Amino acid sequence: MHHPHPPPQRYHQLGDLIIGAVVSHGTFISKPITLTEMPPPPLPEDLVILPKNYQHVLALAFAVKEINENPQFLCNLTLGFDIYDSYDDAGRTYQATMLLLSGKERLIPNYLCDIQNNLIGVIGGLESQISMHIATVLDIYKVPQLIYGAATVMNIKTPSLSFYQMVPQEELQYRGILALLQHFSWIWIGLLVMDNDNGERFIQSVVPLFSKNGVCFAFIERITKCNTDNNTVGGIEQASKLKAKTMSSKANVIVLYGESYSMVILRFLPYLSEIEDGTSKLKGKVWIMTAQVELTSLAFQSTWDTDIIHGALSFMLHSNHLPGFTSFVELRNPLDPKEDGFLRDFWQQTFECIFPNSGDKDYGNICTGEEKLDSIHGAVFETRMTGHSYSVYNAVYALAHAVRSMSSIRLKHRTKADIKREKPWNQQLWQLHHLLKGVSFNNSVGDEVFFNHNGELVAGLDVINWIVSTNQSFHRIKVGSVDPQAPSDKIFTLDESVITWNRWFNQAQPLSVCTESCLPGSSKQVKKGKPFCCYDCVPCPEGKISSQKDVNDCKKCSEREYPNKNRDFCISKAITFLSFEDPMGFSLTCLALFFSAITALVLQTFLKHHNTPIVKANNRGLTYTLLVSLLLSFLCALLFIGRPQKVTCLLRQTAFSIIFSVAVSCVLAKTITVVLAFMATKPGSRMRKWVGKRVANSIVTSCFLTQGVFCTMWLASSPPFPDIDMHSVTEEIVIGCNEGSVIMFYCVLAYMGFLAIVSFTVAFLARKLPDSFNEAKFITFSMLVFCSVWLSFIPTYQSTKGKYMVMVEIFSIIASSAGLLGCIFFPKCFIIILKPEWNNREQLIRRLKH
User: Fold this and answer.
1) Are residues 161 and 232 located together in one domain of the fold?
2) Which residues of 93-126 are buried (b: 16+ CB within 10 A; e: fewer)?
3) What is the share, in percent, of the chain residues with pLDDT greater than 90?
4) Are residues 492 and 540 in the same domain?
5) Nearest partner of 781 among 684, 635, 620, 667, judged by Cα
6) Does 538 have pLDDT greater than 90?
7) Is the pLDDT of residue 46 over 50?
8) Does residue 189 form part of some domain?
9) Residue of 104, 298, 441 whose CA lies nearest to 450
10) Do residues 350 and 359 make contact, with C-beta atoms less than 8 angstroms apart?
């Protein structure tokens, strides 16, 4: 196929088979396609290109060159290719696609006059929208399309079209970005997307996914594509908008989902800062970029500061160094007429010069053709193969392997009759689809290439750390990978020790949170009207702890543990009870034994002087009974000390209540006896028959039996038992006696209180009787002490917990018993021991008369 004046965008025809490659806008600058039937719209005269994308053409040419130089690969077949520029225009894309299908310069749809050169497939484009336009036409003719850029829009809008993606499935990037954010606990991020269908699709996919996994968005900003005729003004406008959003945000991590030209807009940020503020130092951010974004620049941006992307992390298509590719690129000569039609335009814009015969007088520099590609800034052009170029390289080999397989099948099964009626290649393209789906090979550097059932390349992504040197050269360092074929726990791997962060962070791992971490001992409380990543830190409530940072809710300790002071861990509770070794237990034991000894001495003194008037006065038997009951009450207190056992729990409350009932009833009987004795001395009194031991004994016995009935009912219904109390005292497990029926416990106490009040009332009424013949005044004091002790006991007992409740009860027993002992018997012992001369009948009568 020969043309006297071939269009500059169609070049390098090499042989029988042609691989048509349609390249998206901005890849190279070229003159408009000349079409007779449908003239294209005019192009801007000052069209600006991305020189770096020219490498895609070179990768295509390099792959075709390798295949054609290998005579064993395609026998009797030679690969060739035509390339058209779409100029990001739907009409031009359709026209270029039809030109590839027509096989000639003049476009006559559905007519193919070139039977030597047959189109077998199309590689392109870099942008999803362009690929969709191509696929709409190719699907009619069943021509395979291998896409080396994003295909998100195509997956949504054209599910019935047949195409093959030379990039891994889009969801793999989502999972990789999320894993990266979770690895560094970055939960407050910004999101920048291009304002197109791909960007909206990305937002719809990642926002719910990330939010579900605890990541919030500080902002979501859409970037509008700059017009080709006003790149600088449009770039500055976009940069101003981005700077206001990104630099004012607390988010230190920004995810950039864009196209190949997105970096051009991002590089306007430091330029804008320099012209506005006189400085190019911007607040450092961690940029996380998707595979579609490459470090590209317009030619005039080559001298601009690139520190903004220093320390960025990027998910890139896996690529390998191909031996011979760098030298192949460096040998390109724009003065050689055999070179492709894009090289001269690429050369002029990259080196900002003109060739003498170009007719363009805008540049003052003259291109010599001796300029070195390896001297260009890496953001403008690289001689080492990039990820997209590697995909183009593999796409060529995938088509070549499919053609090889189809040729082998045709040679194997054809006969002489078949040769005569053999169908042209373009009528057997449906077979190529089938072979492409099953293609699997290892390329020249050993990487395996094959597709899944959806026509997506089964491959992983590399996590790349972009490092900018002080001389503004940049390097890519692989720090991790996303491998979909690895075990679930190894899909995402990262070596954070080799990551270089932006200089703003002083090589410390950046934080990106809306709120500083809540320390252990506190929990998060979401701020009303704010994303869930923005919260206040509130201390854990009483009884709860948080041992980790940023917990949503504090948790309770187990029953056998309690929170420490800072409420960040649990401490095992100590098992406690009022033991004899305890200081308070030991003190109360000594106090009880001391008063027991005093009571025993008093009893011995009374027994020794049992025939003296002061002992015989007011019923000697009641006196002995009272002293014995007081002795037992002091000893009864010892039942409350020590580890509670079943027997001690049963005995201590019942024994205490019965003994005290006897003691109080003795006091009551003594008081009533005194009253009856004085009433009986009156002439004609009928009370004489009530005077004697019978009434006193009846009072004591009835009171004793009544309390005994209460205790029996208590023990029969719900007796006390040993129990473990884990809740009343925060830091202790208290072993004590559960009183069983609380109602019966307070009934017993109420009955004793009733007896005490009656005794106090009777004694108070009899307090003015002659002192020498009765104890009413002393009994009044004793019962006042007794009642005061037990009235204060009730609120004190209710307000204390654990072993201190037992201590309060023991102290009340000892104090009330000591009150009775001291107030009633101390005056008598004083007379018996220190004033024996008063202890006779005559002296008592004389004192009475006075």
Assistant:
1) no
2) bbbbbbbbbbbebebeeeeeeeeebbbbbbbbbb
3) 20
4) no
5) 667
6) yes
7) no
8) yes
9) 441
10) no
